[in-house]
Structures are given as structure tokens and as C-alpha cells.
């Protein structure tokens, strides 16, 4: 998606530790017009897949998933919570997820009330690096008996193993911008 790549080149910052900082438009301050174009592109790529639920993980995926949902006949967005709360009562699906950015492991949960065998699910998230968050969400979809239509990722770090692992699992993975390499000196180089 050229619009996204241009925005990353213009406003993204490469930081030490393979961190691509895009907080001015994607995962802290959110550019809603850009999110609309992202949503339209996910819809184009997953056209005809019968998606009736969108699943993401808190926190950065929520805004993107909500805007994208408008283009999937207002499919409800369900997000996996990283911390148990008193307002989730009843049975839950659980999976362990290691966060690349935060450097810690979370037990993510989704209420069984919101995901089941009648659902055809699209997972949406902002980043794919090592694939841990996405694998956790895939585990939850499979545990629910729902059908996984695929995963839509805004930015994939193609030089890390997550995309290869997920594709190797037979999951349809659509990444809007795949970073081939990046450095503080050279900036970001995209695949394709």
C-alpha cells in the first residue's frame, strides 16, 4: 500500500533494537483518514471471505480494527485483553503472548460469549515481528471453533521470522507494508 509506505518514510523513525516508531500516525496518535484507507485495503484483499467478526489485541490494534470494521458490513470487533478484569465474567479463551515491544509475556483473554463456531474471523493488528501476538490470536480462534479467514497486518517486519512462521502454518497473511530492512542511518527499505 503505497500511501502507507510514504507515510512510514516521511514520519516513521527507526530506533535501536529493531524498533520502528510510528506513534505519530499509527499506534499512539491515530490518523483516522489513513486508517480508513487501511480499512478499505483490507476489505479489498479479503473481499468475498464472509467475515463476520474482527479480532485484534489491545491496545494498538483496536483503533485500526474499529475503522476497518466499517468496510466489513460493520462486523463486530472483539479484542483480546492483556489483563484480566472484573468485567469479564464467565468462561474465556486464553493464550500466552510475548510482546516484542514490551518485552514481556501476557495471558490474553477473550470471552467465550463473543467468539464461536458460527464466526468467520479476520485478525487485524498493527505490527508483525516475531509472530507471538498473532499466534496467540490464532490459538484463540481455533479454540473457539471459529473459522479463520486470515490476518491483516499493517506493518510486517519481513526480516524477522513472524511472517514466515504464520505463512508456514497455512494462514492467509496480508501485510500492507513489509519492511525488508531498516536502520537508523539508512531508514526503511520495503519489500516489493
Keywords:
alpha/beta; two-stranded antiparallel ribbon; 28% helix; 34% strand
Q: Could you explain the architecture of this structure?
A:
Converts the preformed base xanthine, a product of nucleic acid breakdown, to xanthosine 5'-monophosphate (XMP), so it can be reused for RNA or DNA synthesis. Its main location: cytoplasm. Xanthine binds at residues 20, 27, 157. With 192 residues, the protein is of the alpha/beta class. The chain has a single domain (2-190), classed as Rossmann fold. Helices cover 28% and strands 34% of the residues. The protein contains five helices and ten strands. The protein has helices at residues 2-11, 32-45, 60-69, 132-144, 162-168; strands spanning 13-15, 19-21, 53-57, 77-80, 92-99, 104-111, 120-128, 147-157, 173-183, 187-190. The strands form three sheets. A six-stranded mixed sheet has the order 4-3-7-8-9-10, with helices on both faces. It has a two-stranded antiparallel ribbon with strand order 1-2. Helix 3 links the parallel strand 3 and strand 4. Helix 2 (32-45) packs across helix 3.
Amino acid at each position: 500500500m503505497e500511501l502507507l509506505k510514504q507515510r512510514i518514510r516521511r514520519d516513521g523513525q527507526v530506533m535501536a533494537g529493531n524498533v520502528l516508531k510510528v506513534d505519530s500516525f499509527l499506534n499512539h496518535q491515530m490518523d483516522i483518514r489513513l486508517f480508513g484507507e487501511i480499512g478499505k485495503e483490507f476489505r479489498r484483499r479479503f473481499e468475498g471471505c464472509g467475515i463476520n467478526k474482527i479480532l485484534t489485541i489491545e491496545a494498538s490494534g483496536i483503533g485500526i480494527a474499529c475503522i476497518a470494521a466499517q468496510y466489513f458490513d460493520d462486523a463486530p470487533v472483539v479484542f483480546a485483553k492483556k489483563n484480566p478484569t472484573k468485567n469479564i465474567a464467565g468462561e474465556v479463551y486464553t493464550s500466552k503472548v510475548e510482546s516484542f515491544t514490551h518485552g514481556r509475556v501476557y495471558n490474553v483473554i477473550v470471552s467465550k460469549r463473543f467468539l464461536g463456531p458460527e464466526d468467520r474471523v479476520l485478525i487485524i493488528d498493527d505490527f508483525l515481528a516475531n509472530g507471538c501476538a498473532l499466534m496467540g490470536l490464532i490459538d484463540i480462534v481455533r479454540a473457539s471453533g471459529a473459522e479463520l479467514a486470515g490476518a491483516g497486518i499493517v506493518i510486517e517486519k519481513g526480516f524477522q521470522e513472524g511472517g514466515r512462521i504464520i505463512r508456514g502454518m497455512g494462514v492467509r497473511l496480508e501485510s500492507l507494508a513489509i519492511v525488508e530492512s531498516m536502520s537508523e542511518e539508512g531508514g526503511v527499505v520495503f519489500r516489493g
